[in-house]
Structures are given as structure tokens and as C-alpha cells.
Amino acid sequence: MAVYTQLSAEVLADLVAEYDVGELVSAKGIAEGVSNSNWLVETTGSETNGKRFILTMYERRIDIAELPFFLGLLDHLAANGCPVPRTIHDRSGASSRMLHGKAVALIEFLPGVSVDHPTPAQARSVGRVLAEMHETAQDFPGTRANDLDPHASARVLADCGQDALAKIDAALPDVIPVAEKIADGWPQGLPQSVIHSDLFPDNVLMLGDTVSALIDFYFACNDAMAYDLAVTHAAWSFSGDGHGYRAEVGQALVEGYESVRALSPEEREALPLLAQGAALRFISSRAQDWIDTPADALVTKKDPMDFVRRLEFYRTNGTEVFAA
Amino acid sequence: MAVYTQLSAEVLADLVAEYDVGELVSAKGIAEGVSNSNWLVETTGSETNGKRFILTMYERRIDIAELPFFLGLLDHLAANGCPVPRTIHDRSGASSRMLHGKAVALIEFLPGVSVDHPTPAQARSVGRVLAEMHETAQDFPGTRANDLDPHASARVLADCGQDALAKIDAALPDVIPVAEKIADGWPQGLPQSVIHSDLFPDNVLMLGDTVSALIDFYFACNDAMAYDLAVTHAAWSFSGDGHGYRAEVGQALVEGYESVRALSPEEREALPLLAQGAALRFISSRAQDWIDTPADALVTKKDPMDFVRRLEFYRTNGTEVFAA
Q1: B-chain residues within 8 Å CB-CB of A302?
Q2: Mind listing the pLDDT tens digit for each residue in B170-193?
Q3: Which of A319, B35, B94, B105 is deepest in the core (most CB within 10 A)?
Q4: A24 vs B contacts (CB less than 8 Å)
Q5: In sequence order, what DSSP letters do the residues of A39-66 get, joined into one string?
Q6: CB distance A32–B30 less than 8 Å?
Q7: Buried b vs exposed e over B206-225: b needs ≥16 C-beta within 10 Å?
Q8: How high is the pLDDT of residue A1?
Q9: Does residue B61 or residue B316 have the better pLDDT?
Q10: Which domains does chain B possess?
Q11: Nearest CA in chain A to B115
């Protein structure tokens, strides 16, 4: 939650002039994004491009070579009616530019707020939009491998080491053998598309019960659609710290999804393990971040145990939860 | 530069419902303000109150008992045509409310950007608007003492102590006797009004060469108008680190001011010392903040030496710079 780079009004005005969006009127650094800096930018506007935008500067984690995939995906989805912000291209047609040695993109601003405590009606909407996104992304030509699959996650945990994990929580090293089991049994051959793979509530903007935008596609990759549903289930259906499964929310999410795209028997059968893999993915990245983050750093560390509890829940109750 | 408090969309929606502004559409925490948290809020709007606002939560430094002064001042200035954001009052007529034990205010959003490298034309506009603000504030009924006058600043520096100051910079303790001299000779009886007293470039929003808003009045107090001009001169007329006086900018600022409100001979004569007092005010608060801030804290410490250089400049060149 930070703006890592300061950009003067003069620099921002020059940047904005590279786009057909009119002149700079306002720019506020916003406290969102852990891998990039973001500004809410207002201009005098143009007929084609409107006048409010998110300017993103890519600071970390994102490989610039992958930006055409991420930004092209936004354009493909937006052009086909999905509620995602489109990328504003500059006057030369480029979707990103370099500024002070970093890549920046100007992205459509969409209204909506991220809910903290989703209702079943909101989860139903999210499921529906997720399925629509999966179907629309089927004919997106770009591809990107999932570098956070359960094999990678199991390896990350093993590399952290028993001792370092135990320092975070005494129960955390127990996940290592579970991770290997999940990776070994990982389902193959499920229908794929480009998936979001990180659809937490803060990556969904809502107006009431309606999804106004899916945002932050920087983990998007080609993988099983049912896995994306499992990630979203793990992200939406629990109280904040992973205690307390909210059955009505989880159920509404899957129902919403199936109202657009029915799950095959193989997908439904795979969901309990896919959900464990989803929990594993966040356990491993959070454990690694925890270990890599200095004790006095300014970021709020996310507790991997929140997702250990979810993993345990899916191991115990997954079959029942995802029964048709 | 932070958002100190997280507010869920649900809490924000409930808060917004207390005002005649329509329903919540968007809220982004913005990376501004060191003593408070701010959100850029959009609503469906109402005819009287528009639809874009800054929501401020007062976190530190500001005494809640003083909020009626600060917010009432905004309303007085805005109602009389000064470019300052007005306060949106809630349905009961209150200008601030309590939320989670902290005071919050909903304030009109005004366009504009803060310039880093002001041009003379921009400085002229700022001078003009500052003078207009002083004249308009003459009949504002509220009063607030300046608790950062040179006597207070001299005391703060002395309380920091020679050793602590020397740790920041070997030359800093030399300011202690200078501070006493400034305080002893401080001019009395100059014409007063409510002054902004902190009008740095980031507290002015501009559209081109036009001032669209003066913001952040949380140091406003009753004091000499010429002192406010001196503060603004010290804040606007130097390159960032206090090296390099930008004569054209400083001159344009004073000319702009005088195009609205002529300085009396006494005010003009006092300016060199007032400017030294202005520099002193920021030296002392920065020195104190420097000492009070843990080495590993997340805030960027501001170097008091930037203003020691300005102080030296005004001691050497003040008479010449402010000659009619």
C-alpha cells in the first residue's frame, strides 16, 4: 500500500500529453498495489477515451516483457463486454510506455468499491462474472504459464525450510508433506482458459450487488478454469483470518459460476483438491514474503496461517462443500 | 504519505449516507497528508453537493476542538469566492462526525495539481490568491493563536539540545542563538488576519497558471499577514534543498500579492526578519520531527538544513530581496 515513486505534476502533464485524453486536471497517488505505484488521474478528456484513469507504474515483480499479455488481455476482455478496465493506448498505439526507466500504463477508471464482507448475492455476481471472463478469454491469443502451480508452491515451501517456517508458526512445517501430496495428485486435463488466479475481494469492484470491474490481472495465466473458481472460493468464503467458513457465500459463488458455465463432473470432482492447491499457493507466497520481509519493514505482512486454516478446512470438508 | 486507517466499503457507504450526496460509488485511499488519512470519494451525487469529495480522518496533531475553526474557515472563504474547498455538512448540519473514535470531515474535491517547480507566472497567481484570502478572512469570526511563533520555535530548538541538533548536522546548533535574536526582535503591531501559515507548493492546486485551490489549512491561525507572505516566499522561491534562490519566482510572488493588497512600509521593512522567522519555524519543527522519528520509521524525514540555508540566505540578502 504505497506510492513508491514521486512524479511531479510537470512530468505527469508531459506523460498525459502522449495520449489522446486532453490535459491533466488532477492526479492523486493512491494507496493501492504492492508491486506498483498508482495514481488516480483526471484530464479534460477526449470523446474516445473519457477523462478518468488509473496510471500504473510497474515497480516490482512484473516482468515488462509480460505487460503486452496483461494489457492485451484487459483490452480483449473489455472489448467483449467483460467488466474490466481497458488500456488506453498512446498516440503511437503502444499500451505501455517507459518513464524514468520504468514501464507505465494508463488504464480506464471504473467505479465501484471492494467489499470486505461479501454477501451471498455479491458472491453470486462474482461467480457469474468469473465464468463470463473464462468464456471470453477462451479466444484470447496470448499465453502465459502459471508459475505458481502446486509443484512450484511445494518447492517454495521446501526451500523456505522447516526451521524458518516453524519460526512463523509451529504448525507451518506440517504443510510441506501436504503440499507434496497436493502436487502429486494434481488433476490434469481439465478445461483451460486464461484465468485471473488472484480474485480476492479487493480485486473486484462492486456497485451494490453488481460487479462493476475485475481488476489487477497481473497473476493471470493459462490454467484450469475450475482452479480459478477454487481460488476465488478460498478468497471469498471465509472470515478474514480463515476461521469460519461462510457456506452461503461459497455456495452462491459456485451457483453463480454455474449459471453461466456448468462444471463438468471431472471439474466438480477436482474442486476439493483444487481448493487445497489454491490455499497452498497463498500459504507458500505468504511464507516466503514473511521470511523475505525485514521485521521493521513498512508493509503489513500477511499471515500464512490464514490459509493453513483454509487448507485444513478443504482437506476435511472439501468433498462435502463441493458436492453437486 | 499514508492511509493510517482501513475503512471497509460497508463503513464508508454508511458514513456517506449521513450526508446529502447520494450513494457511494468509489473510494480510493490517497497517499497524502502526514497527520490524517484521506480518501478520494465519489458518489452518485446531489444537486447541492456534487459528487466528488475528499474524506479526511484526523489521526494526529489536530485537536478535535479546533476542527470547527478549520472547517468553518474553509466555509467562510469558499462562500466569499476564495478558491478553497468547502466542507460538506451532514444531514444534522455538523461539519465533522466521529467514526471509530476519530473525527472525519467530508470536503469538496477541487481539481488541480501541485507543481514542483513553480514558474514566476504561477507564483504571481499564488501571491494574488494569498492576498485575497487574507482580505476575505478579515471578517471570519473564529480565532486561533499561532503556537509556532518564533518564541515557540526558539524554545523547541533549545529543548532539542545542542548535542541532538549536532547529530543531525554540525551547523544546526548555531541556529539556537540566531533563533533567540529573531524572537527578541520580532515585529509587533503588523496588520493581522487569519493566515494559512503553511502554504507550500503541495498545498496549492493549480490548473496551468491559475490557482484552483488552497488546501490543508490545519496550521491556520491569527497572525501578521506579512508573515504569511514571508512563509510562502520561503516555501516557493528556492530550489528543493534550499540552495539557489529563484529571484524571479520570489519577486513575482510579492508583486502578485501587492496587486491585490499593498504592503505598508512597516510590513515591507519587516519582511527580511519575518522570512527568517518563517525559515526558523520549519527548522525547528523538522529538527524536532527528526529527533522524534525512529531511524527505521516509514516516513521520509525532512532535512532541517534545507531551511537553515534559507535562513542564512535571508540574513544575508533579505534586505535587498525585499526592497521595494
Answers
A1: none
A2: 999 999 999 999 999 999 999 999
A3: B105
A4: 113
A5: EEEEEEEETTTEEEEEEEEE-SS--GGG
A6: no
A7: bbeeebbbbbbbbbbbbbbb
A8: 41
A9: B316
A10: 9-108 (3.30.200.20), 120-321 (3.90.1200.10)
A11: A9
